[in-house]
Design goal:
About 25% of the residues lie in helices and about 25% in strands. By secondary structure, it is an alpha/beta fold.
């Protein structure tokens, strides 16, 4: 087994430790990717904090891009040297969800405790979210990668692995937004900004961004928000409805905070829907009066990873980026080395960063 440098979580809530780990070669159906970049997602931070539980020690990171450096038997459509984006969406292709075009909720479980990673003494090392991208190299299933154009900037491309497909996909796939409809996006962080630009691309009439931060709301306008509302207002849904002149056809909750879900139904119109994107900590609860949903024909819809079909959606988004219609470079707040990962995480937790990216230079 080869040794690579990785940032390992040994204890929830403690700094990651950059150390050598062992990574086995790809077996049948797998691809090894030497990473150029891996963005830091709030899901990585939430896992590392222990809010969702999980197995330790672990290597997190799941928004990655790089070049294929080895392939296992039976791999098709990908060869050594290809630039690729690496996602956490591992799909078997044959279960009921995969067969119906929903690979993000594949029924075939993956046990990261028995993946390609080991500690240098041969001990268990969990490959978190089937990726383990806070490392110089990853070995993943071929279903998790999408080939990129040779000219694609890999720092920008890494964002396509999660934050972009989650936000844009929640609008076009989960909400099935039609041109002329109205949207509220609760949370103007990395995923929220992508939901905003997804709504712009889809032709929304009004796009209302709701956030606690004036700074983030100003950035939301750059990404396509037509109206902004401070969530600290006693009744922010009234201000949003004033801007739209009505309730929203879709409200996308992109923050992992239960109170945001409590408020979300107050923004929607009759026949509208709440798209549930952000994931609160395990055990957090929200409360609704169910009769209101039935009487108004409203709905709540969960959306994992934007309901993306990566080999369909990522090439489309790359094309939009190359046309200048999808912002990726503007999402990058800073580039950091792997040795700086804890500083990058703290900067991300401060709330000021859109996306910090770990860049590998070796």
């Amino acid at each position: 087994m080869a040794q690579v440098k990785a940032a390992v979580c040994h204890e929830f809530g403690k700094p990651l430790v950059v150390e050598n780990v062992e990574l086995r070669a790809p077996i049948a159906g797998e691809v090894e990717v030497t990473l150029a970049a891996c963005a830091i997602c709030h899901s990585d931070i939430t896992y590392a904090s222990g809010a969702w539980g999980g197995s330790l020690p672990a290597v997190y990171g799941h928004e990655a891009a790089g070049h294929v450096s080895a392939v296992g038997g039976g791999v098709s459509g990908i060869k050594v040297g290809d630039p690729v984006v690496v996602t956490l969406i591992r799909s078997c292709g044959t279960c009921a969800p995969c067969s119906s075009g929903k690979p993000t909720i594949c029924d075939t479980a993956y046990d990261g405790d028995h993946g390609p990673l080991k500690t240098t003494d041969g001990g268990k090392l969990h490959q978190a979210m089937a990726t383990g991208g806070f490392a110089e190299k990853v070995v993943v299933d071929q279903s998790q990668v999408v080939r990129l154009p040779d000219s694609m900037d890999l720092v920008a491309a890494s964002l396509l692995a999660c934050g972009v497909i989650t936000g844009v996909g929640a609008v076009v796939n989960a909400a099935a937004l039609r041109a002329g409809q109205d949207v509220v996006v609760i949370g103007a962080g990395g995923v929220g900004l992508n939901a905003i630009q997804g709504a712009r691309i889809a032709g929304a009439r009004r796009i209302v961004a709701v956030d606690m931060s004036e700074e983030k709301l100003a950035i939301a306008r750059d990404f396509g928000a037509t109206d902004t509302v401070l969530a600290t207002d006693p009744e922010p849904w009234r201000l949003a409805k004033d801007g739209m002149g009505r309730g929203a056809d879709a409200v996308l909750v992109t923050v992992g905070a239960a109170p945001a879900y409590d408020a979300a139904p107050r923004y929607i119109a009759k026949g509208g829907k709440v798209i549930m994107v952000g994931m609160p900590a395990t055990g957090a609860e929200s409360h609704y009066e169910a009769a209101n949903f039935a009487a108004a024909g409203q709905a709540m819809v969960g959306s994992k990873m934007g309901d993306a079909v990566i080999k369909r959606d990522i090439p489309w988004m790359v094309d939009l980026y190359e046309q200048g219609r999808l912002k990726l470079d503007e999402l990058v707040s800073g580039c950091w080395s792997l040795d700086q990962i804890n500083e990058a995480i703290e900067d991300t937790k401060s709330g000021s960063a859109k996306r910090n990216v770990i860049v590998f230079t070796g």
